[in-house]
Design a protein that fits this description.
Structural class: alpha/beta
Radius of gyration: 21 Å
Number of helices: 10
CATH architecture: 3-Layer(aba) Sandwich
Strand content: 15-25%
CATH superfamily: P-loop containing nucleotide triphosphate hydrolases
Bound molecules: iron/sulfur cluster
Number of domains: 1
Strand order of the largest sheet: 6-7-8-3-9-10-12-11
């Protein structure tokens, strides 16, 4: 496995009066997942479910409260800043809003070259040529080198951000909602580009999104999160055709069927998502679960493998 999270937990303190810690937001709870080299792992769930926190923990951009992060089999949880700096060269992140991740006063060629300078990639004199090649790789032209971010469309800006991520020859990229802010017509171009780059450069992706159709298209395996918990994980086709967790079933029921003659029965969840400060007892999904039984309030369901590669956290999954 290229990347592995083991029992990762993230709690954010909530300050009370006089700056004393009053309570904590339980953003991610005991989450374990692994991603193989060359794989695209899709992570889905409603906003606020802990997907982005998980992505940032995988890169150690935020520190796990407890648990471990392994990269290429090595525990990087306790790495020093210098060790992390070296490993980060291989791990990049692409955010939802490309404009805010680019310096508006820096020409885009220089922004891409900056990453190479930091990691001293190639000879200084050759870096400009390498930037031209990267621009070409992501579908832009060399004359774009001297332009500023505001001169580009949203889709082009996401291409620039991708070129900047590729400048350090990464192996693993966290794509955090990379197409959510784009026009539907542009989304497919960026998804195709991500797939093409993956084939060409043997990249591994953790692809975070709430759009299930996009995730189904790009992912090899999919994990579903609810209130900071991984509740189901399976190869993509298996998850979309045989979802076993009631939450996954409800999420999928809202996705239009590719064949318009076949309508899905919509499962509407009642009630609001509970506060991550005060998690429900037992199964965190029980207050909204249409299948809940009394035992669900008492015991936390373990995420267990029910079929090869298909893990489900539900007492009734068998
Ligand atoms: Fe629903 Fe109970 Fe399964 Fe949780 S454990 S998903 S409440 S049936």
């Amino acid at each position: 496995m290229l990347l592995k999270l083991e029992n990762a937990v993230k709690r954010f303190p909530v300050k009370g009066g006089c700056f004393r810690t009053k309570s904590e937001v339980k953003a991610v709870s005991n989450l374990s997942l692994s991603i193989a080299e060359g794989e695209t792992y899709g992570l889905v769930g409603e906003s606020g479910c802990g997907k982005s926190t998980t992505g940032r923990m995988a890169l150690r951009l935020i520190e796990p409260t407890s648990g471990k992060v392994y990269y290429k089999g090595e525990d990087i949880t306790a790495y020093s800043d210098e060790q992390l700096r070296l490993v980060r060269k291989e791990m990049q992140i692409v955010f939802q809003d490309p404009y805010s991740s680019l310096n508006p006063r820096l020409q885009i060629g220089k922004a891409i070259q900056e990453a190479m300078n930091i990691f001293r990639i190639g000879e200084a004199a050759e870096r400009k040529q390498q930037v031209y090649e990267l621009l070409h790789k992501v579908g832009l032209q060399r004359e774009h080198y001297d332009r500023y971010p505001h001169e580009f469309s949203g889709g082009q800006r996401q291409r620039i951000v991708l070129a900047r991520a590729l400048a350090v020859s990464p192996r693993f990229i966290v794509c955090d909602e990379p197409v959510s802010a784009l026009d539907v017509s542009i989304q497919s171009q960026i998804i195709n580009l991500l797939e093409q780059l993956q084939d060409e450069l043997q990249l591994t992706y953790l692809f975070i999104a709430h759009d299930l159709s996009v995730v189904r298209h790009i992912s090899d395996r999919v994990g579903v999160m609810y209130l900071g918990h991984l509740v189901e994980e399976a190869p993509t086709d298996e998850l979309f055709t045989h979802p076993r967790h009631p939450y996954t079933r409800a999420l999928l029921s809202a996705v239009p069927h590719p064949n318009p003659k076949r309508k899905r029965e919509r499962i509407v969840l009642t009630g609001d998502v509970p506060s991550p400060i005060q998690l429900p007892s037992g199964c965190v999904f029980h207050p909204r679960c249409p299948a809940a039984v009394p035992a669900c309030k008492e015991a936390v369901p373990a995420l267990k493998e029910r079929l090869a590669g298909h893990r489900v956290a539900c007492h009734l999954a068998d």
